[in-house]
Design a protein that fits this description.
Layout lengths: L2 E7 L2 E7 L4 H8 L3 H8 L4 H17 L6 E3 L5 E3 L5 E7 L2 E7 L3 E8 L14 H7 L6 H18 L7 H4 E3 L8 E9 L4 E11 L2 E8 L14
Length: 226
């Protein structure tokens, strides 16, 4: 079954889709609007088309109240009908969505088989590098958790030009199970934004997600104010 996970949380839900279908089948599952059909016809790369369609198929499976997915100028997604805030992630063969009614969500996924050790220095601080290598048999998994966590926070905070190795800090627990939580923080020049992150290791995919209360950034489609 393509739907690998449909997890309900307070005022939100998370979905994970395994992309095993061809574009023709995904097109039927996605239930596209006329405008989205035109957009889809313009996507010529096969894997990109499948990811794009799978995301819409997953959204259609999770809720019928979302409407089409649109994008702000910086590439972040929002839903046309405005009932939910949305975050999207893809990795090879999978798509994930995090919907939340009131908070700004961020989600990122990665295959547990991906080897990221050679590029770890680009996004890990020296302290995080040491933290990830503290348990040698779990180094790859812990590096992936930090990578996904930083990507999730990047999708949450309303800022660009973020340096991952210094502007986003992650603290993992001493143990790394197949699910759990850990803190992260965006460290900006004028403010810090803490984000409590949760993670799940399921069917060869690591998911990391978190959310924050909305501010006043006009790029976001806020539902409620706090």
């Amino acid at each position: 079954m393509p739907l690998q996970l449909h997890k309900h949380i307070e005022n939100g839900e998370i979905g994970l889709w395994k992309i095993s279908e061809e574009p023709e089948e995904l097109l039927l599952l996605a239930n596209l609007s006329s405008a989205d059909k035109i957009t889809c016809s313009g996507i010529t790369t096969l894997h990109r088309k499948k990811e794009w369609l799978a995301t819409r198929a997953l959204l259609n499976e999770m809720t019928l109240l979302a409407g089409p997915i649109n994008y702000y100028e910086d590439g972040r997604p929002y839903l046309e009908q405005g009932k939910y805030n949305i975050s999207i992630s893809h990795t090879k063969g999978f798509a994930a969505i995090f919907l939340h009614e009131t908070l700004i969500p961020g989600i990122d996924i990665e295959l547990t088989s991906r080897l990221v050790g050679k590029v770890a220095s680009r996004f890990l601080s020296p302290e995080e590098f040491e933290m990830c290598h503290a348990i040698p048999e779990l180094t790859t998994k812990r590096v992936l958790l930090v990578w996904c966590a930083k990507e999730a926070i990047f999708k949450i905070v309303p800022f660009t030009n973020i340096e991952f190795s210094t502007d986003i800090k992650i603290t993992l627990n001493d143990t790394t199970d197949n699910f759990g939580s850990f803190p992260g923080v965006y460290v900006g020049p004028l403010e810090q934004i803490p984000v409590e992150l949760e993670y799940l290791d399921k069917n060869g995919v690591i998911l990391v997600w978190g959310c924050i209360k909305p501010g006043q950034d006009a790029r976001y489609n806020f539902i409620n104010s706090f």
